[in-house]
Amino acid sequence: MLLFKRLTLVVFFGLAMVNSCGAAPIVAETETTIEIKIGGIAMLVYQKADVPPPDGVDPIYTRSGFIHPARSPSGAVVTGIHPEDHYHHLGLWHAWVECEVEGENVDFWNLKEGTGRIRYGRTVSLLSGSDEAGFTVEQEHVIYPGDPSRELVLLREMFTVVARERDGAYEIDYDTKQTNVSALSLKLPAYRYGGPIAYRGPHHWNKTNSDYLSSEGKTRIDGHTTRSRWIAMWGQRLDSEESDTLAILNHPGNHDFPQRMRVWPPTSNNGAIFFNYVPIQEFEWEIEPGQTSTMRYRLVTQDGKPDPSDLDRRWERYVNE
């Protein structure tokens, strides 16, 4: 009887340890996606294959090389793609906009222009550790795609994503290393949006059930063009009154840190959540042939509304690691 009780206690505390520590994340690749899973649920999915827009929409909005869906620990999806107001918004993605190459306008962001595009190139590596998982892929930033006489890979990018569960949240490192592999200079005039990380929230998030909160206390009312160390976007779940948060931590090593923000006011598209850290919002920049631009961010997806003290602690730990 005593042995049975001891075995019962061992099993009980063993299960408690598993539940408190959580499952280890794993990475799984198919022909079309790379998923990082934890406990059998995909915390994020990277799209290798071209993803078409909804039926009836111009197929020019088809694109690869972005993350959707991303989920909070609750399992709720916290990204949205192909919204009716901006079909080129794709969950978590990045692209330069209003660029100049040899005196001509090139736009990797607004796909309808047809002058630029970003695409998945190849998988470089997969990472499976004891407490984190991730991948590195090569992405190509192409000018004049589809034009045999002019198509050219201008930027070749190493895009690395590494995810883990930490202190009740998912933390996802989002690192881009873009090298100008052409003989042409990429000029980036000052512009209100465009750059190394952009985010579109779920389609049902609006001015009545969602908001922004920056490290400086800014919201959708006064956040646009301000600078921040981190930004949190939160919104209500479809099936309950509970909320979920996706935050982006900005690394001090990034160009123009603390970077300025593109934040939509409540009058834009009924208060939909769109966000972009913009290192060229105030000052022009240039990536010359042979030069490399490296940008680092950490995403935090959490259940509930953002806790500024918790995000401050996570940012301090991130920059001191």
Written account of the structure:
With 321 residues, the protein is mainly beta. The chain has one domain (28-320): Beta-galactosidase, Chain A, domain 5, CATH 2.70.98. The protein is built from two helices and 20 strands. The chain has helices at 2-21, 308-320; strands spanning 26-29, 33-38, 41-47, 66-70, 92-95, 99-101, 104-106, 116-128, 132-143, 152-166, 169-180, 186-188, 195-200, 210-214, 230-236, 243-250, 260-263, 274-278, 285-287, 292-303. The chain is globular and about 55 Å long.
Secondary-structure map with pairings?
Layout (H helix, E strand, L loop, with lengths): L1 H20 L4 E4 L3 E6 L2 E7 L18 E5 L21 E4 L3 E3 L2 E3 L9 E13 L3 E12 L8 E15 L2 E12 L5 E3 L6 E6 L9 E5 L15 E7 L6 E8 L9 E4 L10 E5 L6 E3 L4 E12 L4 H13 L1
Q: Quick recap of the structure?
A:
This protein is mainly β. It has two helices and 20 strands. An eight-stranded antiparallel β-sheet has the order 8-9-10-11-20-16-15-14, with helices on one face. Strands 1-2-3-4 form a four-stranded antiparallel β-sheet, with no helix packed on it.
* Main sheet characteristics: 8 strands, antiparallel
Give a count of the beta strands, DSSP E runs of length 2 or more.
Answer: 20
Catalogue the unreliable spans.
1-21
The percent of residues in helical segments reads 10-25%
CATH class, please?
A: Mainly Beta
How far apart lie the N and C ends? Answer: 49 Å
Whole-number mean pLDDT: 93
How many H/I helical runs? 2
Radius of gyration: 21 Å
Taken as a percent bin, the fraction of beta residues is 35-45%
Shape: globular
How many structural domains can be distinguished in the coordinates? 1
CATH topology: Beta-galactosidase, Chain A, domain 5
Spatial strand sequence of the major β-sheet:
8-9-10-11-20-16-15-14
SSE ordering: HEEEEEEEEEEEEEEEEEEEEH
| CATH architecture identity | Distorted Sandwich
Q: Which structural class is indicated by helix and strand composition?
A: mainly beta
